[in-house]
Amino acid sequence: MAGQLRACVGDCGTGYTKLGYAGNTEPRFIIPSCIAIKESAKVGDQAQRRVMKGVDDLDSFTDGSNRKIYMCNKVANPPWYTASWTARQVEERTLTGTVIDSGDGVTRVIHVAEGYVIGSCIKHIPIAGRDITYFIQQLLRDREVGIPPEQSLETAKAINKYDTNGSKWIKQYTGINAISKKEFSIDVGYERVLGPEIFFHPEFANPDFTQPISEVVEEVIQNCPIDVRCPLYNNIVLSGGSTMFRDFRCRLQRDLKKTVDARLKLSEN
């Protein structure tokens, strides 16, 4: 119908929500994922560690009274949230595989067998893009590279977004001092490697969690029914911006293979 409004597509992430229209190649708007609570003198809360806190808040954030809305959300939230969205995403499919979803606030490992989520085997990992940003910020502070203190987090976000690709080559980041308006530049070297490395050595950023992501995937798959373990290994899907680092897939595959081979060798002996 010529006069029909196009459907809106929204991806509610931990830090930011991406909004656009169906058929577009990229989002029209990128806004922080937060709401204003009336009579509380407080703006927030951000979706802490990627968990929604209330249906009313979600309704306030996604008002679809004027247009149809398609929400791109994950299936591993509290029961009330899972019940609302799982059916829309996986119930009509018959796929078996493992989804590693890593955004800004949390990383989770989700297993789907024949189109059904194995809820008891969903694993949350308290390491994600925000932790990488804070880790890079601390590395830059330790080096004392001349970044204005009030812009250290902004600089770390920019480095995390564009330069943290695991390359061995040094790149240069250039910024503008917000106060003096003078240009400053820094060399970005080992931050490019150590940033994504916290997925495989999380103790770098979180002393309370020391299990690499490859071991988490292996452990959770072993907790799944034995008849679906092989397809879960064979079909691993990466989702979220924090899985887009260069060679992240190859590193995860290599570490998983080492873990599985070591377990098989131990069982043979």
Question: How are the elements arranged and paired?
Answer:
Blueprint (H helix, E strand, L loop, with lengths): L7 E5 L3 E6 L7 E4 L3 E2 L4 E2 L11 H7 L7 E3 L7 H12 L6 E6 L4 E7 L2 E2 L5 E3 L3 H15 L8 H11 L8 E6 L6 E6 L2 H7 L15 H10 L6 H6 L1 E4 L8 H21 L1
At a glance:
This protein has helices spanning 55-61, 79-90, 129-143, 152-162, 191-197, 213-222, 229-234, 248-268; strands at 8-12, 16-21, 29-32, 36-37, 42-43, 69-71, 97-102, 107-113, 116-117, 123-125, 171-176, 183-188, 236-239. The chain is α+β, with helices and mostly antiparallel strands. It folds into three domains: 1-73, no CATH class; 74-125 and 210-269, 2-Layer Sandwich (Nucleotidyltransferase, domain 5), CATH 3.30.420.40; 129-197, Actin, Chain A, domain 4 (Alpha-Beta Complex).
Molecular structure report:
- It holds the Pfam family Actin.
- Belongs to the actin family.
- This is Actin-related protein 3.
- It comes from Monodon monoceros.
- With 269 residues, this protein is of the alpha+beta class.
- It folds into three domains: 73 residues, no CATH class; 112 residues, Nucleotidyltransferase, domain 5 (2-Layer Sandwich), CATH 3.30.420; 69 residues, Actin, Chain A, domain 4, CATH 3.90.640.
- Helix content is 33%, strand content 21%.
- It contains eight helices and 13 strands.
- The strands form four sheets. Strands 7, 8, 9, 10 and 13 form a five-stranded mixed sheet that branches.
- Strand 1 and strand 2 form a beta hairpin.
- The longest helix is centred in the last third of the chain and has 21 residues.
- About 3% of the residues have low confidence.
